[in-house]
Every structure is written in structure tokens, then in C-alpha cells.
Amino acid sequence: MNYQPHNLLMRTINQRSLLTCFAIVLSTSLATADDSAPISFNEQIRPILSENCFHCHGPDQEARAADLRLDVCDEAVDYGAITPGKPDESLIVDRIYSDDAELIMPPPESHRKLTDEQKQLLSDWIEQGANYQRHWSFEPIRGEHDATKTIDEFVDAGKLGPPTYWRSGGDVLT
Questions:
Q1: How many domains are contained in the chain?
Q2: Which residues contact 90 (CB under 8 A, 6 or more apart)?
Q3: What is the torsional sign of CA 47, 94, 57, 136?
Q4: Is the pLDDT of residue 69 over 70?
Q5: How far apart are CA 135 and CA 133, in angstroms?
Q6: What is the pLDDT of residues 70-86, one digit of tens each?
Q7: Does residue 10 belong to any structural domain of this protein?
């Protein structure tokens, strides 16, 4: 074969283009795989709601505003705050994305503010069906368990306890 400088250059460019295309396709498919992973209420959504919403829309009846509870699925759905699978029909999505100071949640006077990532996560969670979970302390013990062990032994073994990001040194938000 005759390898002239022009042919060699074109071959190198084609190989680099092919590698670049492969890298783009691979990174896009990895990002898509992460985006479709189920969102955990206990590990991802409850901390956001607890920090920003439960002060006014949580279990404390005395502090509750608008007679809305976001910590109880049925009540949030009945109120219209959350429409599972339909973020565009969910009042909470309208409120967190609002530009109106009278409508935006959390309200400016609360000095709390959701990040763009938190807003998107809430929207994605609703899109995925807004699956609530009981508080982690009420979830069953994972794996086999021995009735003779103390609760501390289960926690130490990672079979019972707070969400994994707490154990990995993440910030405790709830």
C-alpha cells in the first residue's frame, strides 16, 4: 500500500473521530442509565422536604400551613400537591419553579431555597411515580437476622439504620 502523508493524516483523523464518537455515545448512555435509576424517597427526597418543606407542611399540626402535609403520601396527593407520574399537574412543581414571590415555595421569608438540582430531583421523583417510603427506622431489617443480637449489632453490620449516605459521612439532613 502507498502511505502518502495525506492518506496517513486522513486515517489518523478518522480513527480519532471514531474514538471521539464512541466516547460521546458511551458517556451519553452512562448518563441516561443514571437518570433512569429509581429515586429513593428516604435517601434523596425526604432530606429535601425535611429541610425545606416539613417546617410548614409536615407532622407538626400547630405549625402546618394551608392544611397540607407533604410527609404523608395520601394527604399530599388528595390535596393536589403531588400527582404521581405527572409533575406538570403537581402543585408542588408549580410552586417550586414559580417566579412570583407570593407563590414560590419555600417562601422567601423562610430563608430557605431549593437548588436547581433539588427542584429537578423532585420533578423527576414525581415523574417516576412519587413513591413514598416509611421512615428508615420502620423498614424491615435487611438480610438474615438473629433474635439474640442487640440493635447495635444490626446497625454496626449495616442491616439496620439510617440511609447509606449517612453512614458514608454525608450530611445529616433529617
A1: 1
A2: 80, 81, 82, 83, 126
A3: negative
A4: yes
A5: 6
A6: 999 999 999 999 999 99
A7: no
Residue 32 in any domain: the answer is no
Q: Are 52 and 60 in contact (CB under 8 A)?
A: no
The predicted-structure confidence for 114-171, as pLDDT tens digits, reads as follows: 999 999 999 999 999 999 999 878 877 777 767 677 777 767 777 666 655 444 444 4
Quickly tell me which residue has 466516547 as its cell.
Answer: 23
Backbone angles phi, psi at 113, to 5 degrees: -150, 135
Tell me the residue range of the domain where 52 lies.
Answer: 41-133
As given in the structure block, the three cell numbers for residue 155 are 446497625
Asked, as a colleague might, if the bond just before 87 is cis with ω within 30 of 0, I would say no
Greatest Cα pair distance, the chain, in angstroms, is 85
